[in-house]
Amino acid sequence: MASSLFTFFLTTFLSNFLPLSVLSATVLEDLATLTPPPDFATTITTNCLHNPLLRYCNNTSSSSPMNITEIFRSTIVASHLCNESKNPNCIDSFPKIRIHGRPKTAALYLSFDFFWKYCPLTIVEIQLVNNSLKSEFPTNVLSCAQIRTLDLSYNQLTGSVPVQNLSRLTNLTHLNLSYNRFWEDKILNSEFFNRFNASSFIHSGLLPDVKRYKMRVLVLLVVFPIVVILLCCCLGWLCLKRPDYLPRTCRRRSHKFTSAMLDAATDEFSDQRLVSKRNGVDIYRGTLRDGREAKIEVYTEKVSKAKKREFEEECEAVFKLRHKNLVRVLGWCNSRNLRALVTEWTNGENVEAWLNSSLASSWRRRLRVVMRVVEGVSYLWEQWPEVAFDLNTRSVLLSGDDQEPLISQFKIGDGNNSSTNIFNFGLFLLEMITNLKPNEEQEDSERRYLEYIRVHCPGNVERVVDEKMKIEDRTLEKVKEAITLGLMCTDGSPLKQPSFMQIYDMVVSLYESSSRHH
Ligand SMILES: *[C@@H]1O[C@H](CO)[C@@H](O)[C@H](O)[C@H]1NC(C)=O
Ligand SMILES: *[C@@H]1O[C@H](CO)[C@@H](O)[C@H](O)[C@H]1NC(C)=O
Ligand SMILES: *[C@@H]1O[C@H](CO)[C@@H](O)[C@H](O)[C@H]1NC(C)=O
Ligand SMILES: *[C@@H]1O[C@H](CO)[C@@H](O)[C@H](O)[C@H]1NC(C)=O
Ligand SMILES: *[C@@H]1O[C@H](CO)[C@@H](O)[C@H](O)[C@H]1NC(C)=O
Ligand SMILES: *[C@@H]1O[C@H](CO)[C@@H](O)[C@H](O)[C@H]1NC(C)=O
Ligand SMILES: *[C@@H]1O[C@H](CO)[C@@H](O)[C@H](O)[C@H]1NC(C)=O
Ligand SMILES: *[C@@H]1O[C@H](CO)[C@@H](O)[C@H](O)[C@H]1NC(C)=O
Ligand SMILES: *[C@@H]1O[C@H](CO)[C@@H](O)[C@H](O)[C@H]1NC(C)=O
């Protein structure tokens, strides 16, 4: 039966129109050059009349109508493939397609869709073994629905196997998909699986691979825990050393700085970052990881455990301060080898420098600075009496466009002393008026300085008042009052010092009167 069908398919064309001698060297050359003989269409029709079962005879059942050119081309491919597959007698029968270990040839023939569409009915065996095929399952071979053997082993086919279409090939008894890279499929013990057997799917990728399964178990039991442990270590290290690398929401306390963080912010406390070095406090200008600039005050003195706890408490207190005239504390570091306070970096100039600029030429402007400083100090004394600060013309900065005075130096670990604070305020006030400072190089400089002012006050006040301020007569009285206040504050005995409440009231009244005159 097969033989007779085949006879209709090939014998007629090949012996009558395309004797093998006509075929040139390659299938591609033949496809390009050969054209159907004039009576080809009639032959096909005759063939179909004799045997309507021939695959190319069905006009309607196939999606496209009968295509004479394609049928002709498929006969060319068939004759070449018959020869390539070493069929014994290509004139009489064409039972098998067999291409082993010839990747290019196999891929070329698989690409002739028209050939597979009109797949000769005599073919019962297709073997495309060891051809390095890298595509998905070559579904066009399934057009040869009559095949009994399909061997695609030793290729690199991937993707899924069209199990349903394969199941429909009722004559297929021998299937081999071994040694491929198909995706794993749930075919184990399915009808399809039982129809063939496990030796059809060796290393095909379709069945769960015991080795791979073992690998997975190994990964799950060994590698995974190791990875988790490593991750935990990393996270722990980050938490301890560089919490600024953690997302903000994961950080428990963003005001806690570690020494590693401050190391990074100051290029390992490099000299370029050092701003000043005084009384056991080194001040650095640092850049935090989020880009903010910060002033980092490092306390270099080695202290006891108890002192470290005090340091922590004081830092906690200053961290809570919120006032427009107090510098904002960002956090602190109190680790084994480093104690430091981190505050916002302020770009403004300090009052000492400001006093020499033209901006400081009016009494009113100077009083405004004093007023703001007093407001900041008053906030501290009322709400945070334990917080010590350093008040002088260098530590008060004028920040921003509106030149807001900012007390920028806290004194951690010094303890607070209200008499000293009032003394410092008095000195600050006198410097604001006179633009003169105690000469630090001299011994006993503050006493000499105060003595000098006291000599000229109140009779000869003009001598000590900064000339840059154009003082009118009516304000001179107020300036005198202010100098008197400064001298009271700096009086040697604490008993004669005014209380802070008194200072506050006097500064307010001076400030208000200067506003009125304006
Ligand atoms: C062609 O179609 C007829 C019915 O139209 C069918 O019986 C026959 O099996 C088909 N032949 C092939 C080769 O598909
Ligand atoms: C196929 O269709 C053509 C017209 O398109 C028709 O002449 C021919 O008889 C048909 N062949 C068969 C086998 O139905
Ligand atoms: C026949 O097939 C060829 C190539 O596949 C195509 O170029 C041609 O248009 C088709 N002819 C018809 C009538 O469908
Ligand atoms: C058929 O195959 C033989 C070797 O098997 C080869 O010598 C011959 O050239 C082939 N013929 C064609 C037309 O490819
Ligand atoms: C596959 O073909 C190559 C040559 O192309 C050959 O060396 C190898 O032994 C073949 N492998 C198998 C399993 O047939
Ligand atoms: C496989 O079967 C599906 C229907 O189950 C059909 O749509 C598809 O065309 C078939 N594929 C091949 C290559 O025969
Ligand atoms: C299966 O083989 C039988 C016997 O050779 C044949 O009659 C039948 O047409 C074949 N089935 C298919 C789907 O080709
Ligand atoms: C699997 O099938 C092949 C042929 O289809 C047969 O030779 C072999 O013995 C079978 N193996 C098992 C384990 O059933
Ligand atoms: C499929 O091919 C592999 C490798 O050649 C072989 O070990 C296996 O027995 C074959 N399976 C069948 C069912 O022929």
UniProtKB/TrEMBL annotation:
Keyword terms of this UniProt record: Leucine-rich repeat, Membrane, Repeat, Signal, Transmembrane, Transmembrane helix
InterPro entries, per the entry: Kinase-like_dom_sf, Leu-rich_rpt, LRR_dom_sf, LRR_receptor-like_kinase, Prot_kinase_dom, Ser-Thr/Tyr_kinase_cat_dom
Cellular compartment(s): Membrane
Signal peptide location: 1-24
Tree of life domain: Eukaryota
Signal recorded as keyword: yes
Pfam families tied to this protein: LRR_8, PK_Tyr_Ser-Thr
Domain Protein kinase: residue ranges: 269-518
Membrane-spanning parts: 217-240
PANTHER family, A to Z: LEUCINE-RICH REPEAT RECEPTOR PROTEIN KINASE EMS1, LEUCINE-RICH REPEAT SERINE_THREONINE-PROTEIN KINASE 1
Name of the protein in question: Protein kinase domain-containing protein
Organism the protein comes from: Brassica rapa subsp. trilocularis
Gene: A03p056150.1_BraROA
